[in-house]
Amino acid sequence: MQAQSTARADNYSRKRLIFSSIIIFVVIPIVMLIGVTILNDRKYNLISMIIVLLACVPFFVSFERRKPQAREILTIAVMSAISVAGRAAFIWIPAFKPVTAITAITGFAFGAEAGFLTGATSAIASNIFFGQGPWTPFQMFTWGILGFIAGLLGQKGWMKSKIALIIYGVFAGIMYSFCMDIWTVISYDGLFSWKRYLIAMSTAIPFTIVYVVSNVVFLLVLAKPIGEKLERIKVKYGMLNN
Question: What's any one GO cellular component for it (predicted)?
Answer without folding.
Answer: membrane
